[in-house]
Amino acid sequence: MSDGGGLSALVGAGAVVLGPAEPGPVRHPTGDHLRVTRGVGIGIEDARIALVAPDDEVRDWFHGRMRGRPGPGGASGEAGSLIDCAGRLVTAGLVDPHTHALFGAPRLDDHARRARGDDYKSIAAAGGGILQSMRDFRARGEDELVALGRARLRWVAALGTTTVEIKSGYGLEPEAEFRALRAIRRLAEEGPLHVVATFLGAHEVPPEYRARREAWVRLLIDELIPRVGRERLAEFCDVFCEPGVFSLEESEAVLCAARTAGLGLKVHADELDPYGGAELAARLGATSADHLGAISPAGVEALAASETVAVLLPGTLLFLGKARQAPARALVDAGAVVAVASDFNPGSSPSANVPLMMTLAVSQARLQPEEAFAAATVNAACAVGRGSDLGRIRAGGPADVTVWNCRDVRELAYWYGMPLAWRVFAAGSACLGLGRVVSSAGYELDPLSSPIS
Question: What is the rounded CA–CA span in Å between residue 232 and residue 1?
């Protein structure tokens, strides 16, 4: 992660969404939790928000700080930026708590097969799905994977997201899985986006182990997960708990090994069938249970009674052609902490557009716009263990801020699919809209660069 982008000030906003005054999740989000404020600006110095104050005070602070820097561009040689937002909306940067953004080629054949009526399981049985991505991934070197991931993160930033979780899980052999985690770590070190790494060796049973699946589970538990923990290659461990993938018993064994190794827990739960993954996640105290397209009423109750975040992936169910979304309304009404994510991946959700996911959460899953915004900020931050810091704007907090080409926070879930982000700051560095920006590793951050394999 870079150390920040110098000195900036945002003034002239039509509205600033500060977010909840206190850290942590919001179980029944309302407009009051968003704390929409007018007439205030934001001062950014290096990677932190220096102040949130009336516009005139922020202007005075900016000019004073600039006078205190030697040379025309200050001590760093970089000119400060005083930005007139001209009535635009300002929010905390969005958080995407579930992606598989480190992959090779798109799965175009899968998309065509679904249009012919094939379902997820039949596509996988025919050689498509995750195992197709596995074969492609294994043939790529670490530098190539980093280059692909870097380009995709430009897309992420250009869409207003400043924190993104990335999972391994397309290597499905020890060397390839560790190569994935090393690539994700390099992306995190380059910055400026916050990148959270998750180990997903339990994404599928690799073909080499199909006749002896228990050997793959033992390898995960006895060797891979302990090494991930020792070498601090990831913060979380995930498992695809689903009939035909990993059973409840196998999933629990993987997650218990992860907890022993010092990793946080995540679960791909109840995506296609009401299998009990949500209940397992709640019982083990997982940070999040994700997907939930087929969650049972008992699963809803279990999550509502727990601290586990229910992460909804509405783009996945839309892209797979499913008739129903996860029961977002029931989860919120029951008191669960609900977040939304893109599930950005080559097979079932080839989009990193979190505002689009907010649209789907409103139009298809019946959340209110204010609930969808909380689900993409404060609650999404909780789903990656960042609930004490990210998803809100406060003096002393991280300088993750997005300025949008709209005036009302409800518009983020209204103009579906539109490129609304106008200026984006991650850890104080400008990612969008202020000309040439370079990461700490020396790579130019051009959001128009192609992220295609």
Answer: 16
The residue-averaged pLDDT of 326-334 equals: 98
DSSP string spanning 171-199?
A: S-SHHHHHHHHHHHHHHHHH-SSEEEEEE
Query: What is the distance between the alpha carbons of residues 378 and 316, in angstroms, rounded to a whole number?
Result: 22
197-to-25, 38, 221, 237, 453 alpha-carbon distances in Å = 21, 36, 18, 9, 21
Nearest to 24 by CA among 340, 312, 285, 383: 383
Q: What is the DSSP letter of 131?
A: H
CA-CA-CA-CA torsion for 436, 442, 446, 451, nearest 10 degrees? Answer: 180
CA nearest to 424, candidates 127, 164, 137, 123: 164
Q: 238 is written with which tokens?
A: 């995930």
- Compute the C-alpha angle 22/410/404, nearest 5°: 85
> Do 399 and 313 belong together in one domain?
no
Edge to edge, what strands does the sheet with 401-404 contain? 36-37, 15-17, 89-92, 401-404, 421-426, 429-432
User: 407: domain CATH number?
Assistant: 2.30.40.10
Q: pLDDT for 94-123, tens place per residue?
A: 999 999 999 999 999 899 988 998 887 788
| Same domain, residue pair 248 and 273 | yes
**Residue 370: half-sphere exposure toward Cβ, Cα within 13 Å:** 15
* pLDDT tens-digit readout, 129-156: 888 999 999 999 999 999 999 999 999 9
Q: What are phi and psi of 146, to 5 degrees?
A: -65, -45
C-alpha dihedral (201, 206, 212, 214), degrees to nearest 10: 10
User: Same structural domain for residues 325 and 425?
Assistant: no
d(CA 220, CA 311): 25
Rg (CA), the chain: 21
Place of tokens 């629990």: 252
Paired with 410 in beta bridges are: none
Domain that residue 44 falls in = 7-93+392-432
